[in-house]
Amino acid sequence: MGQLHVKAAEERFALSLAQRQGWGKLFYTVGTCLIGLLMIIPFVWMLSSSLKRESDIFVYPIQWIPKVWQFSNFREVWQGSAPFGLFYINSILVTFWTVLIQVLTSTMAGYAFAKINFRGRSFWFLLYLATMIIPPQVTLIPKFILFNWLGLLNTHISIILPGAFSAFGVFMLRQFFVTLPSELSESARIDGANEFRIWSQIMMPLAKPAIASLIILAFVWTWNDYMTPLVFLRSKELYTIPLGLDYFMDDSGTEYSLIMAAAVSAVVPLIAVYFIGQKFFIESIAASGIKG
């Protein structure tokens, strides 16, 4: 009789625990959805405003769906007095070369710190990692003086070089390479492969999720970078999208419909890159995380 009471109590406890967990998951899901909704509302308003007439933007209550679709806003942005297409091409070139060089340097350094035994490896890795605590604003003046001495001011090279080397990228790739079996590189060395061949033909294919994550992050950082081009560029013909938007706002005044159309045009590549690489981005977080 006592065993039946104990069993019934255990069943009631298990049922109560399952109900609490169910309510907890429900609250978590609802809360996450609400936060996500709050995050996406500004983007929806931006997209809606980019397709409205100027007189309809600040109508209350908000008209999320425009009564009159003004696709001509985008035509005016791209074909207006401000060379928005040139700003776009400049951003594409700068971002492409910055991301490409950063991926190469980060994968090489990450592989070296993870799989090559050399004297002081941990010390040099920690020292390089410590540079992440230095605010980028602190190094602006030294970089300005250096690039001025080298004759690189007012060139795209002056904004590509600072982003070509990333301590965070090295850290992320190093953490990923640490999770790969060392037997892969050791067996390749026994077969006579040099370090460059091991890196390029064995490690790089296995590191696709981490590389895709780095590409997404580096693309976003470089595409949205405002401070570096502002300091090192002088000619309007060299402006990237962030400076171009600033120039466009000065040129168009308070025409918010055109400003929102320009902002939507600037955001499209970021969204496209994320959706293309989100699968690898999630795989990289799950695979590497904070291991090592």
From TrEMBL:
What UniProt keywords are attached to this protein's entry? Cell membrane, Membrane, Transmembrane, Transmembrane helix, Transport
Q: Which GO terms describe its biological process?
A: transmembrane transport
Please list every transmembrane segment annotated in the UniProt record, as residue ranges: 26-47, 87-113, 125-145, 157-177, 198-223, 256-276
The cellular location(s) given in this protein's UniProt record come to: Cell membrane
Q: Does the keyword Cell division apply?
A: no
Q: Name one GO cellular component term.
A: plasma membrane
In the bilayer, the protein is annotated as:
Multi-pass membrane protein
Which residue intervals define the domain ABC transmembrane type-1 in the entry?
88-277
Q: Which InterPro entries match?
A: MetI-like, MetI-like_sf
Name the source's superkingdom. Bacteria
Q: Which SUPFAM superfamilies match?
A: MetI-like
The keyword Cell membrane belongs to this UniProt entry's keyword annotation: yes
Q: Quote the Gene3D superfamilies the UniProt record gives.
A: MetI-like (1.10.3720.10)
- A Pfam family reported for this protein in Swiss-Prot or TrEMBL: BPD_transp_1
UniProt family annotation: Belongs to the binding-protein-dependent transport system permease family.
Stated name of the protein:
Carbohydrate ABC transporter membrane protein 2 (CUT1 family)
